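Researcher: Let's do a round of design. I'm pasting the structure tokens now; please hold your answer until I've finished.
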């Protein structure tokens, strides 16, 4: 995979994570009984995305 493909893929992943988090937050408004689980879901998604970015950029310093 080329450097630009890594960067493009990571951007797509971040967009998907942002969309999933936004959807979870909207769902939380109508289903407050699931608020804690949805909050944890969003936190895990964001953490995983950050970790993925760290791995890609640490192992491929030319990416960026």
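Researcher: That's everything. Go ahead.
Model: Designed sequence:
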């Amino acid at each position: 995979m080329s450097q630009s493909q890594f960067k493009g893929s990571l951007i797509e992943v971040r967009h998907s994570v942002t969309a999933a988090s936004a959807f979870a937050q909207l769902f939380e408004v109508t289903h407050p009984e699931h608020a804690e689980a949805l909050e944890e879901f969003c936190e895990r998604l964001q953490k995983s995305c950050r970790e993925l970015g760290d791995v890609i950029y640490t192992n491929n310093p030319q990416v960026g």
